[in-house]
Amino acid sequence: MNKNIILIIIKLMDISLTGIYFFMGGVAGSYLISEITPTYAEKSDKELKEIPSYLVFIHICCNIALITIYAYLLRKVIKEIPFIFDGFMGYKHSYLPGEKYGTVLLAFALITYVSQDTYDKVTQLLGRFNIKAHRKTCKKCAK
């Protein structure tokens, strides 16, 4: 096999593995964040109205801060994970712009699993200022 083809295969394996690390790390982070922050979906309308607006704002800020800190730490950890083929036929794992490839998957995983709760909090806060924040795909709005 041609050396260039082998190097392309190794690079694709490196990109894939890095993407898996980011996605699985994002799913794990989403789970942890949802476990340690208040969830509004489980609360009744009466319970939600009893939460002061400043506390709703703080909950939103906590969600965003935890997501940002977790993403930063995950990128640092993944950057340090060695690649088995590093140095093979001159391939350098350090040349892989891992953050560029993995951050999209990390964002997808975090947004998929944390977004509904964050959306519920933002909707709750905006509703207190008479601002409707419904999604265009909302079935209630279509009626």
Continuous helix count? 5
Beta-strand fraction estimate: under 5%
What structural class do helix, strand and pairing data support? mainly alpha
Number of strands: 0
What sequence of helices (H) and strands (E) makes up the elements? HHHHH
Mean pLDDT: 81
Radius of gyration: 21 Å
Shape: elongated
Number of domains: 1
Our measurement of the CA-to-CA distance between the termini, rounded to an integer number of angstroms, reads 61 Å
- Helix percent band: over 70%
Low-confidence residue ranges:
none
Give the biggest beta sheet.
Answer: none
Properties at a glance:
143 residues, mainly alpha, 71% helix
Question: Can you describe what's shown?
Answer:
- The protein has one domain (3-142).
- Helix 1 (3-36) packs antiparallel against helix 3, helix 1 packs parallel to helix 4 and helix 3 (53-80) runs antiparallel to helix 4.
- It is 71% helix and 0% strand.
- The N and C termini lie far apart (61 Å).
- The chain is elongated, with a radius of gyration of 21 Å.
- The protein is mainly α.
- It has helices spanning 3-36, 45-50, 53-80, 98-127, 139-142.
- The longest helix has 34 residues, at 3-36.
SSE topology:
Blueprint: H1 3-36, H2 45-50, H3 53-80, H4 98-127, H5 139-142
Helix pairs in contact: 1-3, 1-4, 3-4
What is this entry, summarized?
The mean pLDDT is 81. The protein has five helices and no strands. The chain has one domain (3-142).
